[in-house]
Structure prediction request, 271 residues.
Amino acid sequence: GVTVACSREEAEKALEDMMVSRVFGESGSQVVIEEFLAGQEMSILAFVDGETVRPMPAAQDHKPVFDDDKGPNTGGMGTYSPLPHIDDAIIQKAIETIVEPTAKAMVSEGRPFRGILFAGLMISPDGTPKTVEFNARFGDPETQVVLPRLKSDLLEIFLAAVDGRLADIEIEWSDEAAVCVVLASQGYPGSYPKGMPISGLAEAGQEGLIFHAGTALGSDGSIVTNGGRVLGVVGLGAGIAEARNAAYANANRISFDGKQNRTDIAAKALQ
Ligand code: GLY
Prediction:
């Protein structure tokens, strides 16, 4: 439901769509208008139990539907982690000035948060992290590139969060890189057809990780499309270039009518 408006006309059109044409139904009866933030996207997910914040490795999402960040925003067309082109100091600054104070503030307001806190950030050209949004959940498709890098037992981390022991446990991450390419239906994020048979899944599943998002079982037991974002195809490798090649090689093994995906996921990390 977000429109990044680059002109007054685009902003007025978005308001008319939401509040007059009601393209998002009742959800569009209230809108939030915010400052435009330029820069690099960064998502920081963290395990939180009250004041203890255990950040996961940073990931970068690609919200616009088309290459070069063109077209309308989506839930996310692809991700990668780690972010070799963003200084560790900037990531640390985002944790220390945004994520940790947020957890602390919730404690001091008497509403301690326990769970996954997800900060959607923009790193402005001068290196300042700014907040776009918070979610009290894992990110999609951020999780697809973060959790495959987790070497520790996820259940132990969840139990430690529940018991308030997050400060006492070791959480280990792999140095491997992960890249996720989202395969979407034609027309997404607008209206799109459903029920398109998907081929190549078995072969692709042997080569790498495939996460189902908008799929369903067809009447003959085959797997068909059933959503805007259909599949998340993840490649792993020693670095971003290797992981990216693996993800795209596997994404190309899968086909369905109207399949669309960005071809520049993680390109910023390699420039
Ligand atoms: N990828 C953005 C989100 O999960 O909200």
Summary: The helical segments are 8-19, 88-108, 143-146, 154-163, 201-207, 240-251, 267-270. The first helix runs from residue 8 to 19. The longest strand covers residues 40-49. The pocket of glycine is lined by residues 61, 75-76, 135, 139-140, 142 (CB under 6 Å).
